[in-house]
């Protein structure tokens, strides 16, 4: 297993870039896919956003200064790409962000890649009601089991602020689930 430092060095050298990029993609594609999928909720959209994420990483790897971990930097890119994708999708459809979220959750039942049961569907409906930051923090903490320090690095927010966002998200989700 190549260290992150070695991988970054190889990615920034012309002669080793393609081989190193293949290692990078194979190492991170599954984690990034599921991170993106939690945001966009659709398999095909997640694949598109993942591809755009890796294109951005490839084009900007020379600008990576190592001030954060490589995966944190890539998660930040993936998060921004997914959120931009949703904003564009809403605009194209003439919808507000909230209306798009409702539509996405409604489409989950028809999504052949969605493997959840009724409880999972209710959880996704609850998540769709959350503000963007709370939803991101909840997804990263609950589904991806990230530590607050990692989330802080990715979202460039204080750990205290993240804990507050997560707590609020949990309360709102609990309240939503009790309304049935």
Automatic annotation (TrEMBL):
PANTHER family per the UniProt record, alphabetical: RNA POLYMERASE ECF-TYPE SIGMA FACTO, RNA POLYMERASE SIGMA FACTOR
NCBIfam families per the UniProt record, alphabetical: sigma70-ECF (TIGR02937)
Domain called RNA polymerase sigma-70 region: residue spans: 24-92
Designated name of the protein: RNA polymerase sigma factor
Keyword Hydrolase: no
Family stated for the protein in its record: Belongs to the sigma-70 factor family. ECF subfamily.
Keyword terms: Sigma factor, Transcription, Transcription regulation
Residue span, RNA polymerase sigma factor 70 region 4 type domain: 121-173
Pfam families registered for this protein in UniProt: Sigma70_r2 (PF04542), Sigma70_r4_2 (PF08281)
SUPFAM superfamilies: Sigma2 domain of RNA polymerase sigma factors (SSF88946), Sigma3 and sigma4 domains of RNA polymerase sigma factors (SSF88659)
């Amino acid at each position: 297993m190549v260290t992150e430092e070695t991988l970054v060095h190889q990615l920034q050298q012309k002669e080793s870039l393609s081989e190193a990029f293949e290692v990078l993609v194979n190492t991170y594609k599954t984690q990034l896919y599921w991170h993106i999928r939690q945001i966009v909720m659709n398999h095909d959209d997640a694949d598109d956003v993942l591809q755009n994420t890796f294109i951005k990483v490839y084009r900007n790897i020379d600008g990576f200064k190592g001030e954060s971990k490589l995966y944190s930097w890539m998660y930040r890119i993936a998060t921004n790409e997914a959120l931009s994708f949703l904003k564009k999708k809403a605009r194209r459809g003439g919808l507000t962000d909230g209306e798009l979220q409702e539509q996405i959750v409604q489409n989950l039942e028809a999504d052949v890649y969605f493997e959840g049961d009724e409880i999972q569907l209710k959880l996704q409906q609850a998540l769709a009601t959350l503000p963007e930051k709370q939803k991101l923090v909840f997804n990263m903490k609950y589904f991806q089991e990230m530590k607050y320090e990692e989330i802080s690095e990715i979202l460039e927010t204080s750990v205290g602020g993240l804990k507050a966002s997560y707590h609020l998200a949990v309360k709102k989700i609990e309240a939503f689930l009790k309304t049935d």
